[in-house]
Amino acid sequence: MSKIVVKFGGSNLKTKKDLRKVLEVIESYKEPVVIVVSAFYGITDFLSSKISGSLETKEAIENIIDELKKRNREIVDENIPDFAYSKKALQKLDAIVGKLEKFLLGVHYIGEVPEFLEDQILSFGEKISSVLLHTLLESRGLVAELVFPEDLPLITDGEFGNASVDFDACELKIKTRLSGDKIYVIPGFYGVSPSGKTTLLGKGGSDYSAASIARCIGAGFLDIWKDVNGFMTADPKLVENPHRLEKITYAEAAELAYFGAKILHPRTVEPLMSAHIPIRIFNINGALDHTKPVSWVNSEEVVLDGVVKSVTYSDEFCIIKLKGPGVGLKPGVLAKVAGKLSEEKININSVITSQIAINLLLQKKDKNAALHALKKLGLHTVTEVHALDEVSVIAIVGQGMLDNYGIAARIFTAAARVGINIKISSTGASQVVSYLVVDRENRDKAVKEIHDEFFTNN
Asked: What is the CATH number of the domain that holds 51?
């Protein structure tokens, strides 16, 4: 019988008492599962914000360590009443925090934060939460083993900050390592390079690491527990009474995640599609029944009557415009632009070109670096380079977008109905998504009106 991989995110670990609810979920499975856990809510951001401070003084490092020890003790006191197990938990946690302190001191002494050290330091949030959860399971009499990614080993391509799992190198080893009849607890978010260095799997990458482990062991399901009701037809904060999406495809889930839906990391489906391992989404604040997911992601393609399944948005993008009378005609311009951005480790999310302009969709965090790099490139055909950053990308997602006429017309009509000017649009890059770029101030009414067009007026 295939095992189930169960992922708990930071949204399930916001308060000291949340571990109890996580424990109830684990016990409800009544079978050994493989658990992948994120850091407690806010811990990774806390560590990230404090790294630069460790360059300045040892006192700053002492404050970081004291704060973590204080948080750990509060969580242990709240959740592990048995003295023997609480003592064991604190000993393990102090050992983990002690290792973190050494890395922070390393940053202090060398006076900079190399990529390999930053990845190592930021992985400690997951290490701390996994130690706590493992000890809590043991205190309840459950047979559980804590396994760190370096002990699996979860081998990556070695890229710091945003690594990919090398399945050829580690799949068989992980399947063998996790074959026992027990619960396994594994920190998410990171793997190890071929040389053994810690490499993060991208921001929010615990979903991706859980999916990778699920693929390696041939899991029956990847179960992801959230604090929301799964995928919806739109953000409930913007739209009244959105519908819950009970079933969507891998492609639809990936596009929704890519364009702003916070349910999954965009790369979660990547390891699972070829293996046809379904993702089940559960709400930890609802019924703790692992047989009744709120949303189900698999390869079954279902085209609704209205085609569109969800309208989502992201404020994390910007547009870089390169203008010139011959940029669309001169060979090699786009190649040089892409090459330069690649050198700077800047990812191009989308490209839309015309005779006189190249429009690049980038992450907003990369805007300044991209402008600097492209202006230095000195392309004679480019007369102007500037950015649009006060924008939002509205994505309309649904199986059958390209095979059913009139969908694009309805989208544009809805936007026009409320006087919204569309700066850029794209249809056809994917079978399941069309997207629009609008001014940020128009984001909310664009989402509402397009959602009404397909779900209310319909």
From this structure: 3.40.1160.10
Residue 303 lies in a domain: no
Residue 247 phi, psi (nearest 5): -140, 130
Q: Which residue has the tokens 């951005």?
A: 341
Is residue 44 domain-shared with residue 79, that is, in the same domain? yes
Confidence category of residue 291, pLDDT binned at 50, 70, 90: confident
Is 305 among the domain residues? Answer: no
Q: Which residues, in sequence order, are bridge partners of residue 244?
A: 232
Question: Other C-beta atoms within 10 Å of 280: how many?
Answer: 22
In this prediction, residues 261-290 reach a mean pLDDT of 92
Question: For residue range 63-119, what is the model confidence (pLDDT) as tens digits?
Answer: 999 999 999 999 999 999 999 999 999 999 999 999 999 999 999 999 999 999 999
* Same domain assignment for residues 362 and 248: no
Average pLDDT over residues 289-295: 91
**Cα distance between residue 272 and residue 213, in whole Å:** 10
Q: Identify whether the C-beta of residue 216 lies closer than 8 Å to the C-beta of residue 171.
A: yes
Q: Cα(447)–Cα(420) distance, rounded to whole angstroms?
A: 11
Rounded Cα–Cα distance for residues 360 and 317 (Å): 10
Write the CB contacts of 324 (distance below 8 Å, at least 6 apart in sequence).
356, 357, 379, 381, 382, 383, 384
- What domain range is 422 assigned to? 310-456
Could you tell me the two tokens for 27? 């016990």
Distance of alpha carbon 218 from alpha carbon 225, whole angstroms? 20
Question: Is residue 19 a contact partner of residue 136, using CB atoms and an 8 Å limit?
Answer: yes
Q: Count Cα atoms within 13 angstroms, Cβ side, for 407.
A: 27
Write the CA distances from 360 to 363, 385, 430, integer angstroms. 10, 11, 17
**For the chain, what is the largest distance between any 2 Cα atoms, rounded to a whole number of angstroms?**
75
Instruction: Please give the structure tokens belonging to residue 262.
Output: 């916070």
Q: Is residue 358 within 8 Å of 337, Cβ to Cβ?
A: yes
Considering 246, 276, 298, which residue would you say is the last residue of a domain?
Answer: 298
Distance CA 364, CA 387 (A): 10
Give the sign of the dihedral formed by CA 259, CA 301, CA 267, CA 429.
Answer: negative
* Residue 274, SS3 per DSSP: coil
CATH number at 373 reads 3.30.2130.10
